[in-house]
Amino acid sequence: MKLYYKRNLPHFQPSGYAFFITFRLNGTLPLGVVEKLKKLKEDKLKEIAAYDNQREKIREYNNFKRKYFLIYDDYLDRAAYGHNWLQEKNVAFIIKESLHSLDEKDYYLIAYCIMSNHVHLVIWLKVERDLSRSINSDTSNNLTDSNFALQYPIAHILKKIKGSTARECNKLLNRSGKFWQHESYDHVIRNNESLKRVVKYVLNNPVKAGLVEKWEDYKWNYYNIKYLI
Fold first, then answer.
1. What is the torsion angle, in degrees rounded to the nearest 10, for the CA atoms of residue 158, residue 203, residue 215 and residue 205?
2. Looking at beta carbons, which pairs linking 124-132 to residues 24 or more positions away fall under 8 Å?
3. Cβ–Cβ under 8 Å, residues 123 and 107
4. Are residues 53 and 205 in contact, defined by beta-carbon separation less than 8 angstroms?
């Protein structure tokens, strides 16, 4: 069973898998960079679509997806645009508490890293197996909270996290207005080896960004070893 929701492009959400999610503060990438990344993706997808061999298409798409994310994440790690509110201890604590508050309720929390302007999150979806009734029913114009959660679990989870933390963080910072960027990045993790590789990347993000020498020294890292054995 595959679930999907749409923003600019579909994000596929098969039940029974872990997910790697990245979301960022509003305004942390300038329009020029966003347009550059968009064109890079569009050009590459057109190139891949012209391939005749299906296996080659899949291989090239997966390789490009990894390269694309690294470019995207490098821009965020530079923290050269917008605000860096998440580097403030009290703000980061609000994000941390929110991520843990949904553990074993909306998802199983595997790992996260709270950077100065973005968050990496690794979770295992807690989705019911029998979704046929809500998936097949036409609820697109009248989604209840429960239907929305079933059909679009990642969107539902991010709505919860972003909604509550935006209010609290804005209050703490004595500001109003948009706190989080609407769009996010998510990637399904299909096996245990990939899960370990993704968690290693998440935990080492502060090292890659030059903030610490060892990931263990970064205060806003977390992982749950029971999901990685």
1. -80
2. 124/17, 124/18, 124/19, 124/227, 125/13, 125/15, 125/16, 125/17, 125/18, 125/19, 125/153, 125/154, 127/3, 127/15, 127/16, 127/153, 128/15, 129/1, 129/15, 131/1, 131/3, 131/15, 132/1
3. yes
4. no
Distant-in-sequence, close-in-space partners of 124: CB < 8 Å, separation ≥ 6: 17, 18, 19, 107, 108, 110, 227
30 Cβ contact partners less than 8 Å away, ≥ 6 residues apart: 81
What is residue 194's predicted lDDT score, i.e. its pLDDT?
92
Q: Is 55 helix (H, G, I), strand (E, B) or coil?
A: helix
Share of the chain above pLDDT 70, in %: 81
Q: What pTM does this model have? A: 0.82
Beta carbons of 179 and 25 less than 8 angstroms apart: yes
pLDDT winner (highest mean) among 119-123, 184-188, 191-195: 119-123
Q: Residue 136: its pLDDT value, please? A: 41
The encoded tokens of residue 42 equal: 């569009």
Q: Residue 96 has which token pair?
A: 């941390």
- Give the C-alpha separation, 110 to 7, whole Å: 25
Q: Which amino acid type is present at position 122?
A: V
Q: Report the distance separating Cα 79 and Cα 59, nearest Å.
A: 31
Separation between Cα atoms, residue 210 and residue 218, nearest integer Å: 11
Query: 207: which strand partners?
Result: none
Confidence check: pLDDT of 153 > 70: yes
Asked which of 32-41, 67-76, 109-118, 141-150 is least confident by mean pLDDT, the reply is 141-150
